Amino acid sequence: MTQRILFNVSKEMSAVLELARELIRCQSITPDDAGCQDILAGRLEARGFTCRRLRFGEVDNLWARRGSDGPLLAFAGHTDVVPPGDTQRWTYPPFSATVADGKLWGRGAADMKGALAAMVCALEHFASAYADHPGSVALLVTGSEERFSPNGVRRVVQWLAERNELPEWCVIGEPSSSRRIGDQIRHGRRGSLTCRLKVHGTQGHVAYPQLADNPIHRLVRIIKDLTERTWDVGDANFPPTTLQVTELNAGTGADNVIPPEASTVFNFRHGPALTAAAIKAAVEEIAAVQQGRTELDWDHDGDPFITHGGPLVEAVKVAVADNTGRAPALSTGGGTSDGRFIAPAGVDVVELGTINATIHAVDEHVHLTELEGLEQIYRDIISHLLFRS
Ligand SMILES: [Zn+2]
Questions:
Q1: Is 370 a catalytic residue?
Q2: Given 71, 159, 168, 253, which is the most exposed site by the fewest CB atoms within 10 A?
């Protein structure tokens, strides 16, 4: 395999770097878009893309497409960022988009304005180089990924489905890389399910427990059963299901009172071996063993998904290997992403973006070489998919 030397940044500021800086300077703290999508739409319209601004509720979304034939390859990402926190702790102001030490610093540099800039530049290059390309390319952007909104990608996917315009393939620019660009891609994600469980008892004096019913004792036994259970053993693509308790609340503030209730919150991360329904049924069964009155409240954050092989995964693997000299590792790790709304619609989804070491942290940054490399990889993915024989 020959390794192309693509990751040298020219002395002139590259187009991808310039665009990434422009986006970072927009203070698009979720769910505010702060003008990012105007910039993206303006650039793509100039290259023959048809842009649809989809304002659903409080969320700005954008669907930009070039071409009307199939197959359709879409890139996807978000313009919103998490708040910077205490700006005094940043080496450079978080929205200054400072370039120093071969890096671009700022909130959103890695998650994920750097990748958005690389996608747009790759699409622009493709549109200029192959004006009469086969198939179609598109960009799907939402302004609310960091904070879930039903009016973000989930709504856009419904809109696309109604118009019969769902893509065959989707590359999401979430920061998938671990130490080097493209060393890891995500071809699936685990599902996430959160339970709020409340155990009701009977309040009373600790000296007269026979007149009371202590909910803490029952809750502790339930938690013991939940945390000691082996939920599944995982499979070739997914690690075993995990359960983590994240909250535990009880007590009246008086040390001689048995409280009337006790509650806990716990979250499951699971692969396709277990459905959300199966998990719910098992938890209900475990809670019922302790008798008494319990209340369970569920937040279903997303089902697991996986893209098995196929042209998209192959194209991404080849593009990464050609540009970095190494094949990427396929992973289903990390938290949930907007892939949970796109993949269930029957779309092949792969996530490939910058290095995730500083996302959501103080001093978030990307290496300039990452931006250049990512744009080149994205360009190659487009060519491989739309010009494959
Ligand atoms: Zn992100």
A1: no
A2: 253
